[in-house]
Design goal:
Oligomer: single chain
Strand order of the largest sheet: 10-9-8-11-13-12
CATH topology of the largest domain: Rossmann fold
Structural class: alpha/beta
CATH class of the largest domain: Alpha Beta
Strand content: 15-25%
Number of domains: 3
Subunit structure: Monomer. Associates with 30S ribosomal subunit, binds 16S rRNA.
Family: Belongs to the TRAFAC class YlqF/YawG GTPase family. RsgA subfamily.
Protein name: Small ribosomal subunit biogenesis GTPase RsgA
GO molecular function, one term: GTPase activity
Largest sheet: 6 strands, mixed
Enzyme class: hydrolase
């Protein structure tokens, strides 16, 4: 299982579960109460993929439910089918807000080392969306890596890369072409361990996956010539072994990238955070306060207004998520208190806070 990311630390963590007769497996695909997971055959040691029932670990919770990349304890002898009985603690997790007005979170992938953010050079990269992906990646605890695909279709790749590097402080930005092989070897070297590939439909994720895996494992559809927008080729998150070691998780194109709170925004906008440290007041809101280094940078063009607007927008989203989370906690406490009160009254006892 070492090729799939199993470590001595995981072996030690799993020891009590092994004593109970369970086996370690890595989830490679999840589908409606079931999952496919790879494990070492207890008799031969050969790796094989088995389908498991995941309902024992509660897949109603969209964050704590089994997901691609999870390490699981499985029971091959469970009836009526083999089952996942527990999940190991996650080292990292990519969590986004679900689509729409709900504030719930959805886990996209777990135990990831590198978040590979793909953007196409065939159209002007959406810098705001890249910033959003970077915030999502930093918040996961994994290392972000931006890959500009379809380099064979443009002549100004280096100029575009410079623009992207300006909104990705501290992040490596690579230019690649899956068609010609340009940059693919460098990309493999920069993404060891477990890598998850995210991006919009049409940016070339499936083609890039095939290039990294070294086989036609994903169906490829052409982006529309008018606007370079693509259709969903990948329909589920799937983990695949790479020929040189490590694994890759391919994901469906993300139309909405809602953030789910945390410090990812500050990490994605580290340049603004550094400027803020130079402000005269430590609680500067960067509006009208004197000695504001951020407003000075905006005035002299050092900090583009577009980037500041993007930062403020993502901050507002985080504040909204935080307020909704606080409201959920308060509601849960109230419901618990109501249940206790009702129970005590039914029993005829005193109700004390």
């Amino acid at each position: 299982m070492a090729g799939y990311g199993w470590t001595p630390e995981l072996d030690e963590l799993f020891a009590p579960l092994a004593e109970a007769g369970l086996l370690p497996a890595r989830i490679v695909r999840v589908d409606r109460g079931q999952c496919d997971a790879v494990l070492a055959d207890p008799e031969t040691g050969a790796l094989r993929t088995v389908r498991f029932d995941t309902r024992r670990v509660g897949d109603a919770d969209m964050i704590n439910c089994p997901c691609t990349g999870d390490w699981a304890a499985v029971d091959l002898h469970a009836q009526p089918m083999a089952a996942v009985t527990a999940l190991l603690p996650r080292s990292t997790a990519i969590i986004r807000k679900v689509a729409g007005k709900r504030s719930d979170g959805q886990v996209l992938a777990a135990n990831v080392d590198t978040v590979l953010i793909a953007a196409s050079l065939a159209a002007d990269p959406d810098l705001g969306r890249i910033e959003r992906f970077l915030a999502l990646a930093w918040e996961s605890g994994a290392e972000p890596l931006v890959v500009l695909t379809k380099a064979d279709l443009v002549d100004d790749a280096d100029f575009i890369r410079a623009d992207v590097e300006a909104v990705a402080p501290g992040v490596t930005v690579l230019v690649v072409s899956a068609e010609t092989g340009e940059g693919i070897d460098v990309l493999r070297a920069c993404a060891p361990g477990t890598t998850v590939l995210i991006g919009q439909s049409g940016v070339g994720k499936s083609t890039l996956t095939n290039a990294l895996v070294g086989a036609e494992v994903m169906t490829v559809q052409q982006a529309r010539e008018v606007d370079q927008k693509g259709r969903h080729t990948t329909t589920t998150r799937e983990l695949m072994a790479l020929p040189g070691g490590g694994v890759l998780i391919d994901t469906p194109g993300l139309r909405e990238v809602g953030l789910y709170g945390g410090e990812g925004v500050d990490l994605a906008f580290a340049d603004i955070a550094e400027l803020a440290e130079e402000c005269r007041f430590h609680d500067c809101n960067h509006h009208t306060e004197p000695g504001c280094a951020v407003r000075t940078a905006l005035a002299d063009g050092t900090l583009p207004q577009r980037r500041m607007d993007s930062y403020l927008k993502l901050q507002r989203e985080n504040e909204w998520i935080a307020s909704r989370s606080d409201a959920r906690v308060a509601k849960a406490r109230l419901n618990k208190w109501k249940a206790i009160t009702k129970s005590m009254r039914a029993a005829g006892g005193p109700v004390k806070r």
